[in-house]
Amino acid sequence: MPNALTFLAAVWLLLAAVSFDHTAAERWNELVTGTVIAVVALTRAISPRSIPWLDWVTVALGGWLVATPLLLAYDTPGEAVNVVVVGLVVIALALVSTAISWRARSKPRFDAYPGDTSRMG
């Protein structure tokens, strides 16, 4: 579920990139970052037990979004607030996804055959 919500946040960022009156650098930053977040979120949603480190990539991308209004000097406060809020939401959802993945990976799986340890955890 957190990855599906992260995907929706990425879609919101992509829509905001083409809706707001951004400079070229701001628009490209949001388009590229939103696309990468969407792809990572879809990958994690499709296969939540594999590639758990992608959540940390998502946390880093969310951190980048939080920092970009300062680095790119956004002109409009509303645009800056939008990017920061999306970045914070992405970070929070990625951390929730990490916690869920960690709990799921640490629990033993009881569907393995007796004596078969290859399918455990």
From TrEMBL:
Residue intervals of the SPW repeat-containing integral membrane domain: 2-95
Protein name from the UniProt record: SPW repeat-containing protein
Claim: Acyltransferase is one of the keywords in the record: no
Pfam entry (one): SPW
Chain coiled-coil ranges: none
InterPro entries, per database record: SPW (IPR005530)
Record keywords: Membrane, Signal, Transmembrane, Transmembrane helix
Signal peptide: 1-24
TM annotation in the entry: 30-46, 53-74, 80-100
Domain of life the protein comes from: Bacteria
